[in-house]
Amino acid sequence: MMVIVVENAPPRLRGRLAVWLLEVRAGVYVGNYGRRQRERIWDQVVAAIGEGDAVIAWTAPTDAGFRFETVGWNRRRPVDFDGLRLVAFDPPSA
User: Fold this and answer.
1) Element (H or E) spanning 47, and its range?
2) Which range of residues forms the domain containing residue 47?
3) What Rg, from alpha-carbon coordinates, does the chain have?
4) Confidence at residue 74, expressed as pLDDT on a 0 to 100 scale
5) Distance (Å, rounded) from C-alpha 70 to C-alpha 6?
């Protein structure tokens, strides 16, 4: 299973994601694809996100049970902590 969440995404990208995945809330897309399809979909998101930002999370055989990647600027950013991926928060912008 995988989940993609987009913010400030262009309408064209949102429409493209809706073709492949189920939009369960505004900007939240869910689907069940293998690694190859997941990477192809994510490549489309990275290429078309523009000024927005996105995160993808998918099930994986890790201690947490999932992995995730991000694209675009957001206060939350992934940080590797001894092989465990955590989220760090940047200070709020003025």
Assistant:
1) helix 35-48
2) 2-89
3) 14
4) 86
5) 10
